[in-house]
Sequence to fold (694 residues):
Amino acid sequence: MSRVVKLAVIPGDGIGPEVIAEAEKVLDAVTADSDVTFDKTRFSLGAGRFLETGDTLTDDDLAAISAHDAILLGAVGGTPGDPRLKNANIERGLLLKLRFTLDHYVNLRPSKLFPGAPGPLADPGEVDFVVVREGTEGPYVGNGGAIRVGTPQEVANETSVNTAFGVERVVRYAFDLAERRRRKLTLVHKTNVLVHAGAIWQRIVNEVAAEHPDVTVDYLHVDAATIFLVTDPSRFDVIVTDNLFGDILTDLAGAVTGGIGLAASGNINPDGAFPSMFEPVHGSAPDIAGQQKADPTAAILSIALLLDHLGFAAESARVSAAVEADIAARSGARTTAEIGSAITARL
Amino acid sequence: MSRVVKLAVIPGDGIGPEVIAEAEKVLDAVTADSDVTFDKTRFSLGAGRFLETGDTLTDDDLAAISAHDAILLGAVGGTPGDPRLKNANIERGLLLKLRFTLDHYVNLRPSKLFPGAPGPLADPGEVDFVVVREGTEGPYVGNGGAIRVGTPQEVANETSVNTAFGVERVVRYAFDLAERRRRKLTLVHKTNVLVHAGAIWQRIVNEVAAEHPDVTVDYLHVDAATIFLVTDPSRFDVIVTDNLFGDILTDLAGAVTGGIGLAASGNINPDGAFPSMFEPVHGSAPDIAGQQKADPTAAILSIALLLDHLGFAAESARVSAAVEADIAARSGARTTAEIGSAITARL
Ligand SMILES: CC(C)[C@H](C(=O)O)[C@@H](O)C(=O)O
Ligand SMILES: CC(C)[C@H](C(=O)O)[C@@H](O)C(=O)O
Fold:
């Protein structure tokens, strides 16, 4: 019995195509002698496409992408300050539009310090946690506006929207994940200041916690959480948090566990109504694009998340193990392709 | 010619009274043979007062505090989860109410890694920057609300409010500070997602930058800023940012520069219309209260900020130098009072 997975591939801008090439190398190799085939469609999207055509993400693009089983994305975004991109906002118009339209309500971001991985902390200890970041609500909804723009009387607002529906589903996902891990869940928010948004998160965590008596539940204000991420990161198992706090914590977590070059993520629609999307946490880094300087490991670990999500646990584990072995053996500078090939060789 | 400064002292809850006792010791000593006298009024405010009287901050309290030249605050807040404080919110009702009512639009938080200070980074380099955090706007305004509270249909919103008036005055302060320092200013925001709030900050920084051609201006997304705080903190000189991002960055910055036990802050009304308030960044830490375990250094460095703000630059420098010498000589555990006395002895 063989299975065909329709995969939409969006290499994107900057270093995106380079790291995606290595991720595909690994995906092809790990599935070569298995009974799954990845049927890939390439989508040319991002700042480059915008500059050529003026389009960011059309309805046709969305429909075509939605017809796939999963999405692999490199990175999107042009050179900061490029005047031609002034009104583009590739982030909102492409990346966030995909996350919102495809209802990626779980933004899954594992942080594991692999033996041998470099890192800024003198004594990190064992670090292995997952941030479950809400992906479709909070301050990311785009419910902002401004009046008297450009004048001394301007007022610019942004509204964070949090619904019981949206919070509950991601909190449930986080508890289920904690059950399969070390059974510790930390809610991160700022309940003492953002009292309404904080209260709904705290209430729902309390309610779902009652159904999971074996999961130890903890709460940290976001400011305190950043302290613990650098002084005691091994205290964390599963962190559940809102879209903006999750954005901040996962960049910091990436830095703490070997750098953003190793941080993978999944934008997941657990219901399966829409394809989930896997992407490195890093951006398009136009300053080093085309130079084979980028580390493709984050993109390759995103393949591991993709495989796991699709139910190919064994293949996923092989990719993770190959990455872990590669990191343990690292020495000296290698090109993007060299890292990809080395990991492929270890599969 | 002698000067009398009316100082409101709010020791607060938990470790607040212990660290304030040491801060006062230092203040008394450093002004002993100078021509300034601090005329202190003690205010009993915080969770303890709320539990006794049901009041958090009355109009009379506010009027009495406002009649002072400056405020020294320890820390406020009761034991987390204390059911009697369920509806108190000491943070919003007392601390934030003071900051907002007294128009503390500059929340000044220096981060300096003193030689010998402990820290989680393997190789921090020279770290010496100041975060200028906006103190009266942003997501802290309390413009939130919720409907259908407690039901599966709840919607809870929080609105960040940013005005040209509010952003411009704090940005001007930050540029003036940068002029007196290493002339580098970094705006931290999340302009790619919070497009309206981000745009007003970016616009005003650009406008004020044009008046300061000798200041190098940089921009970082808040997520990227947390990475640099742990991988390259010496790149920063002056950071200007909104209330919430400033809250997060300064806790992380405190951790990076020797821990939150050393981090001081000033809530400043530069116009002088209201008294400014000086406080350690840390909280009331009820778990270690009354045990002489707290480090009073953050409170003592807040005295240095207070003295500087009031124009006593020489006295301020003496306090900082005494702290620096104390940190360089640290070894073994000391009580709160021992640290305070050691610093006092070095004045
Ligand atoms: C590019 C940006 C919109 C995005 C985000 O803020 O979510 C990125 O920082 C991330 O974390 O994936
Ligand atoms: C206690 C809390 C309201 C406060 C804040 O968020 O500003 C604290 O974290 C701080 O940084 O002074």
